[in-house]
Amino acid sequence: MLLTVKLLLGRRCRLQVSGQESVAALKQLVWQRLQVPVEQQHLLFHGQILADDKRLCDYSIGPNASINVIMRPLEEKADSAEVHRPQPLWHHLRQVLDKHFRPQDAEEVLQLLKQEHEERLQKVSLGHLEQLAHDLLMEEEQAESTGEVEPGATDSTSPHKEEEREAAEKEEGAKEEEADQ
Asked: According to the UniProt entry, which residue ranges have a biased composition of type Basic and acidic residues (predicted)?
């Protein structure tokens, strides 16, 4: 059967595999065709991460299915012990909160912000991420081709596009809430 395997940034390939093929073997094929190291691959089918020891048929993956590849960063190891480093955003935010709140209140506000952040992340779909990546790549290509803006510089129209994107996300969220009720 033929599968489409695609990366978030738009690269994709078609692979001929058997339903009895293991996920680990599929990752090897992805490595060969898309040059994404196996240890950095998360393969997703219908939002579910595929386990290396399972077969494609275990997930009811059929012909012409689409598999998404999410690249995870390589993990750094320090003396064989896993070190948990706070995210720079949360660390910086904590410093700002400490300037304006008592320590206990700052911790409470930080925890609420983290919780809200996690809830919002749960609502983001692969489709949203693909669209965002596509939009950003298109903006960069247009800016480079016209020579108006240096690569990596901000575009003066970006705030409008961001507002449109946020409005679309709110509208989609409202539709999902209506569907749930």
From this structure: 158-173
pTM higher than 0.85: no
| Per-residue pLDDT tens over the stretch 98-151 | 889 898 898 999 899 999 988 888 888 878 888 888 888 888 778 777 765 444
- Closest alpha carbon to 59 in 17, 10, 29, 103: 17
Q: What burial letters (b/e) apply to 42-56, b meaning 16+ CB within 10 Å?
A: ebebeeeebeeeebb
Residue with tokens 């489409």: 4
Whether 180 maps to a domain, the answer reads no
Question: Which CATH number fits the domain that encloses residue 42?
Answer: 3.10.20.90
CB under 8 Å to 80, separation ≥6 — which residues?
Answer: none
Closest CA to 93 of 69, 115, 109, 116: 109
95, 16 Cβ separation under 8 angstroms: no
Does the residue 27 lie in any domain? yes
What is the total count of domains within the chain?
1
